[in-house]
Every structure is written in C-alpha cells, then in structure tokens.
C-alpha cells in the first residue's frame, strides 16, 4: 500500500469517527428533546384541571380567538395536539439519524431491565413487565389527580342558585362528574389509536413493535370505555331523577347531541364486549368485523362533542388515519410470489419480492393477503429469511390450520404445484414489514430461543442472520445460542433444514456455540420419518437428513411486481413529506370549509334581522373529521403517489442476479431435496427428545451455570400462550428467587402475535 493510500485510509477513518460522534450527539439531543416534549405534555395534562392554570389556559384561548379554529378549539389543539405532532417529527428525525449510525452496543450485563422483567403473569392483562406496571400506576395517579382536582373545584364553586327547577344538588353533581369522566375518556381516545398504528414512527422510535403495543390498545380501550360508560349512565341516572329521561333522544343543533353520544356509546360497548379475551379467541371473526364499528364510534363521537372538544382527541386520530392511509396505499399493489414450495410436513414457504429500499430486520413480520382466497382477510406471518440472504426478496413459512384461511391457501398452493403451472400465478398483497426497529438480540452474549411449532419461523431468520454475520466477520455477536423447540410431530423438524448452516458459514462451529434442544411431544420415536424402532442408529441419522419438499414452482415475472415502497416503515424522508403534506392538507381543507361554508352561513341574517346562531355543533364536528380525512387522502395521497412513482423508477429490479437465478430453479419431482442435503443437519437423534416436553428450569439452570456472574441472557419466545407463560415464569423465578445463586439474569422478550 502506498503512503498516499495509507494517508487516505487514515483520513477516512478520522472522518467516519468524527461523523459518528456528531451523529451520537445529535441523537442524544433529539432524545432529550423528545423527553422534554413528553414531560411538557404530562405537565399540561396534570395542570389542565388545576385552578391556577386557568389564567394561562384563557391566555392561550384568547390568542386563538381570531383563527378559524376559534378560541377554545384552537387552544385545545395547541395544548393537546401540538406536543404529539412535534414529538412525531422528532421521532422521524431520530429514526433517520439512527439509520445512519454504525452502532456496536455493549453486551447486556447485570439484572434484567424493568421492561424485560415479567412481573405479573396470566390473567386478563397477560404478561406485564415491571416497567409496564409502573406506567399503569402513573396513569392511574394521573386519572386520580385530574378527577380529584375537578371534583374539588366543583365542590368549592358549586352554586345552588344556578340549579334549574327540575335539578337537585346530587343530580347536578352527578352530571358534572359524568362530564369530567367524558373529558378524561377523550384524553384516552387521543392515545387509543397510537398503539394500533402499525407503522407508527412513535412506536418505531421507542422500538416497541406492533405486536407488543396491541395490549396497550386493549388496556386503554377498556379504561376509556369504562369512563364513557360511567359518563353515559351517570347522565341517564340524573335525567331519570329529574323525570327528563327523554333527553337521551335529544339532538339539539346548538347543544350537545345526546343521541349521537348514545349511538357512539353503543358502538363502543359492542366492540368492548367482543374484545373480551374468551370471546375474542373463540369468535375471532366476529371480533374482527365488529371492531370496524370504530368508524361509527369516531364519527358519532365527533357529532356528540362537536368540533371544539373533538380537538382533544384530534392528534391520535390524525396519526392513525395517516398510518392507515399509507397501509392502504401499500396494500393496493399486486406483489409477485417468486417461489412456492410445499414441504412434506404440510407447511409451505412463499418467497415474495420486495424493493431494496424497504429495510428488513431478522425479527420482522408482514401482513399477507391472497386476493384469490379473500380480498378482506389479512394475516400476520414472521419473516423467515435474513436481510443478508438477499435485498430483493423475503420468505415466510405458513402452517395450515384446519378449516381456516391458511388451510384454503394450502389448497391453492397444492393445486398450483400439482398441476405444475409454470409460471405460478399466485399473487399477494402485502403490508409491512413491521416489528423491532433494531436487531436487539445482538446485545446479548448468550441467547435462549424458545419456540413452539411454527413459532420457529422468526428463529430461522435469527439463526440465518447470525450465520451470515459471522461469515462476514462482524464483531460483537452472540457467542452462545440455545434453541429449544417443541413440536407435535417429528416431520415438523424438517423446518430447520431451511438453515443450511455449513453452506452459509462453513466453520460456524468454530465461531459460536449453537445447541439445539428439540422435543417431539406426541411421538415416542420418529414415526413420521419412516424409521422403525428397531432400525440401526445409522438409518435413524439418515432419516433425519431426509428432509424433502413435495414440489416447488417459481415465477420469473414476479420480479416485475415487488412490494410497494409506500410504507410506514419506508423512507423517513418520504414519510416526513407525507406527514407534513397531510397536516397542511387538513389545515387547507378546514380553512376552506370555514371561509366558504361556515363564515358565510354565520354572517347571513334571518328575516327579523338577527344573526343566526351558526352551524350546528354536530355539523362542525363532521367538518372537522372530513377535513382530517380529505387532508390525508388528497395532499398526503399526492406525495404518496409521487413517492411510489419515483421509487419504481429507481428500483432496478429487472436484472436478476445469481441468487435470484438460483431461486428460479424449478423442482417437479417428489424427491427434490433442499440445497443443504450435503451439509450437517442441525437436528439429529442426539439432540431430539421424543414423548416429552422441555424442562425449562433445567435448561435455564444449565445456561446459568455456564455463565460468568453478572451475565444477562436474552430469552426470546414465540409460540402459544401457555409456552409464553411458562417461559415468563421461569425468567421471573431466576431473576427473583435464584438470582443470588447464579448472579445471572434472564431478559424476557415475546415475539408472539396474540389478539
């Protein structure tokens, strides 16, 4: 190497190091700014009912009096919407900065963090971590504080002379309490939709995947509906005592539309009842379709509270509509299925085309729709391939369930491969990928992966990812990996043959310690692999290596139909553009309606020369919702269309490389064997146990004994709820009771998607 080259490399390293420090400083600054915004929002919530804050609130309201939003409407937007909108922008910038940083995290040590320590296990709330429990306590303290301040203020300023003839003291107080409960319900509504915004930049910035955030939506929904139900019933009780029960059906133009609130409440209660755990799990389709009543709920809630109070919940609904619109744009594309493989165990694998611009992580998942089966049903599937396997495609494994959507998909796949259609004409619609924003499993020196059945899918991706990283000689990777896998039949063990370990990284055994613990619960011997009990050991090994696929069909035209780049997890620059355009669109549409509809109507005079009272409250609420939807659809839609058009121009997927050519090979015989036939199989007789379930405590104890004191082991689980509970209980036991014995912590991570 010449002296000039050496100097150039030194300068390059210096520039990279200097840039890394700058990016780290920017990221810390953004994180601090986000914490300050969250703190300010919490302070606003806490101060809003306090008497000393009323002067500040009135000052803000007065400054908005000349705007189309009005004094109170504009003030509520400033107080309740602007902090979350600013937080969203900061989150997008934070994600962009993080994507440009080359970070090498230090290995996790010491006790498990509060977020990764299961505290309460089982019950209707599921598995609750210590951090989640603290947030729940903080939420309840905030509720108690707000309601307490309102009630104390009401008692101090209660004026008996203001009572109407039909009112009593206790009915008046009951209605005031109901009003405050309804207001807190609106605060909950502002947060309710954030956890179910699958591509939410707020969740991505916090690295909270959608499958984890769903339970926050459930908790908030239960609490919100409790507030709204008490709100409605308190009013009904008060009206009944006043002999004014007919007010339930009032829809006064310039007062609260009571009947609209009744409709919204009935829609909410219907969703609430069908979302109860045992109803949801037994009648999932009923739960799914009934939950679309949220549209009725939001519209009639806007009619009930009017355009002013609707602004309390505006931001959360706006961010959800924005996310839903991006999902709609992405799902409209027809995605090509590159290969369709039917495995001997009944499970099948689909390879889908994606553009290189969409980032993929080892623990991501997608939502899949097959229009040929149903245009409305969407199902989540873990990605079983590593980002290092290829930039232009991803794979999913699907296990059919009897009588369900996956069973019909199996029939479609079987029909395609048996008829030998070439190319395959199966097409799909895809949303995603979603999931963790970072490869968090890399921070652990030791990993314990616990899977049940098809729950092995994300761990296939993790193992492939680790092998690819070791082959690329990356540093600071996990050195010990224990895979615990329980299946019902031995034929399912063939799924691990999707990991050609020696082909990916020939000397992987020298680089890290991989231990497989396979358990076949419903067989005493490998019957499914056609091995007789009296067969010699050599024949048993051969049967374990005899992992076949029934058929495989490929479609070269699939490269012309990749996933859409318009996604909530796509380009941060384009997401920012769409977000700002949608927000600008809302303002433009709202102002247009105000200046061309509302203002002329209010300025007209009646026949007697008196000015009209203005548009009805419920109409203003309707205009607010319409402005929100049109702003996102028209202005955000224009930017999304431009994003999609320019993205397709730069995809460059027309050229098929060596890896894609390999995937296009078609196998038509039943004896087709995977490419890893010559490699050593990960599952073999010595690490497979028949007729028993894994003893998690024994395996975890063995892992703990092999670690140095102070080690932190990452535990990832994917499987049925019973398995998640068992793993969580084992982690909690070692973190609490047995921690002093080994000084080793187990950090719990669930990858299961449960609704």
Word description of this protein:
By secondary structure, this protein is α/β, with parallel strands linked by helices. Among the domains are: 13-102, no CATH class; 114-141 and 439-524 and 691-754, Rossmann fold (3-Layer(aba) Sandwich); 333-437, Elongation Factor Tu (Ef-tu), domain 3, CATH 2.40.30. It has 23 helices and 15 strands. It has helices at 3-47, 54-63, 71-100, 130-156, 169-192, 201-205, 210-241, 258-274, 277-282, 284-290, 294-309, 314-331, 405-419, 457-471, 501-504, 508-511, 537-545, 572-603, 617-649, 658-663, 696-705, 721-736, 739-742; strands spanning 118-120, 128-129, 335-343, 348-353, 365-369, 379-382, 393-398, 427-434, 446-452, 480-487, 513-520, 549-554, 688-690, 712-718, 745-750. The strands form three sheets. Strands 3, 4, 5, 6, 7, 8 and 12 form a seven-stranded antiparallel β-sheet that branches. Strands 13-11-10-9-14-15 form a six-stranded parallel β-sheet. The chain is globular, with a radius of gyration of 29 Å. Keywords: Membrane, Oxidoreductase, Transmembrane, Transmembrane helix.
Question: What's the helix and strand layout?
Answer:
Blueprint: H1 3-47, H2 54-63, H3 71-100, E1 118-120, E2 128-129, H4 130-156, H5 169-192, H6 201-205, H7 210-241, H8 258-274, H9 277-282, H10 284-290, H11 294-309, H12 314-331, E3 335-343, E4 348-353, E5 365-369, E6 379-382, E7 393-398, H13 405-419, E8 427-434, E9 446-452, H14 457-471, E10 480-487, H15 501-504, H16 508-511, E11 513-520, H17 537-545, E12 549-554, H18 572-603, H19 617-649, H20 658-663, E13 688-690, H21 696-705, E14 712-718, H22 721-736, H23 739-742, E15 745-750
Parallel strand pairs: 9-10, 9-14, 10-11, 11-13, 14-15
Antiparallel strand pairs: 1-2, 3-4, 3-8, 3-12, 4-7, 5-6, 5-8
